[in-house]
Sequence to fold (769 residues):
Amino acid sequence: MAHGWQRRLFLLALLLLLFFAVVYSLGLGAVSLNRREIFYILLERLTGSVPPDVAISATSRDIILNIRLPRVLQAALVGASLAVAGATLQGLFRNPLADPYIIGVSSGAALGATVAIVSGLALGFGGFGAVPLLAFAGGLLSIGLVYQLSRQGNSVPIMTLLLAGIAVSAFLSALVSLLIFFSGERMHQVVFWMMGGLGGARWGYLRVMLPYVLLGCGTIYFFYRELNALLLGEDTAHTLGIDPERLKKIFLVAASLLVSAAVSTSGIIGFVGLVVPHIVRLLAGPEHRFLLPASALTGAIMLIGADTLARTVIAPAELPVGIITALLGAPFFLYLLRQRKKIRYF
Amino acid sequence: MDLTVAYGAYAALEGVTFALEKGSRVALIGPNGAGKSSLLRTISRLLKPKQGVLYLDGRDLQKVPLGEISRSIAVVPQDTAIDFDFSVEEVVAMGRYPHLQRFQQEGRKDREIIAAAMQLTGIAHLASRSAVNLSGGERQRVVIARALAQEPEVLLLDEPTANLDLNYQVEFLELAHTLNREKNVTIIAAIHDLNLAAQFFDTFILLNEGKILALGRPEEVLTPQNIRTAYGMEAVVQRNPLHGKLQLTVMKGNGSSTGEGRAPAGITVHVIGGGEEAVPLLDALLQAGFRPSIGPLTQEDSGHRFAGYHNLKVITLPPFSPVTDVYHTRHLELIREADVVLVPPVPFGPGNLRNLEAVEETLCPDRLVALLEETPVAARDYCEGKAQLLYARLQEKGAKVFTEIKELLAFLGRLQERGGKAK
Fold:
């Protein structure tokens, strides 16, 4: 189709940008490492050997491989997940203001996490603490609740789904506030979790997250045409041979998996899921075959960038990354909206 | 293809049964809430019948996979809003979705079909424009192009002309007609405008309160009785003189003239002759509150139809007949009842010259004769100057000449004020 090559070029550029973002952010941090050393550490990790004249310090290797690399990769996965989930839900709700948390996943996850933190629950499963486990369960349970509440016979009207999501979110948020109110000295911990951060990143999280992210993104991409058709309305989608009710379930489950996986490992990181799909759509239109991968890449790049800022601006301390995404994302978003007419390139 | 709908207690439609031939052009008509959209939505499977079965090529439609249905039935919905910033071409390309395997890209054939659909609907030049910023008519054509790209055997149209300008309404229905003729696409359209429907469709289904009131050729369905039952109003059904299709004219109110209800004019007016040329004068007279009688006319005459519609006194001639003595005598009697005789700018030939002679025969001081000469009589004299001669004589004997209807009406108005009588 028209503009095909431009879009492919855009994706390629994003891919390159992602690569540079990863490499660049690996070099930044409280301890500064030179790029040569990073390159050899990665080479050693990948191929098992480095040229004999290169010496790698054990500290550097530990910082890169056990701290920064998992953190950067987790930022990429979480960013991509949130962006893809955002794009999907915006399409499903035919509303560009929908964000990944709109159907109650975030407040459900927050309740789960808060329960875990406040109760000091010593639960563990497969290398996970109680907080991510309960957050994941809470997220999925809340979307299940929202879906059941808005179901009318065999169909789920989008507007009801949206309203049920808002109501359930408000209710769960109130419960979270109640728990925080009685939480005493753990309050700080809960609030910090809710602002979102990648400080807890580790390889274990990545390994568990990856299948969900691949499954969620893969499923959604598998149905990109259906998502396009749904943007024209459910009746139109139906006449193009698509069963909207079935697709709604599929997209809701897939998006919830993505968001729950992201939230349980990294807390509630705002704005990425709302802004990224919107930016990509403003630049290159709503065709999901392109929008979904472009959003994933842009989300990954954006969160890597935000997280790098979060851990460097007041190093050695760090800011919650959610503050950065909102501080930078909101003005940029407004700028794009105001420029809207001029910036649709292809 | 045989379509049979037979379904029971559905709220909007009840016990509807019919079969359609492949390649027919079907107009679903009926008042609001009659079930037109419900029927369309059932055919496209957006609604499920509570009872009964709908067959497509002899197969139960409910059991045909949705994907397969979308390859044979395309829909142009009533609401064509597009909120997202797709390009026109992208929207049209979605019509190919039912034909593509998952992850299969549009091939050359698909692109040709998409281009042809845009060409046919006249939106090729809009291909890369955003579908959000189109006018209602343009957007409608985009949606139609998408339906065409589906290459359907059946095209369902829900009020397709509702948002279109007059020229696009006709253009669109012509397009549907072309598809029907060249590709044997069955067209089923819910449509409000009965006259447009009569012009473009060969089968009519008249729905009323969820039931079929009439089904068949336009002549069988568009009858005054059916219109009265469904719409609760009186209508006259005629052949349009230009395209020969049926045409419906709604009777005003209870079927009588506009002038009724106003104080009856104090003077009686008689108009000589009919034809297209007399109608504007007759209409103006009615508007002003007069109820003119009209001279001998054949049934096919526009003036005669006008008289019938407005319930005016008229002398009816047998078809293609000249004014014979019998009718001439009756005409003289009718003229003598009038205070004013008006001669509209009608053409005069051997067939109706006698009506003009009647004016001369009945001349008397109490009766005013007015000649309306919007076009000079010389230009409409088809009896070798005899009409011109008669005009001259009438003028000589006191007939007044007016060049505009307005002027004539003003004069009649003054006459009325002076007490009704001519002198």
Q: What stands out?
A: The radius of gyration of chain B is 29 Å. Chain B has two domains: 4-250, 269-417.
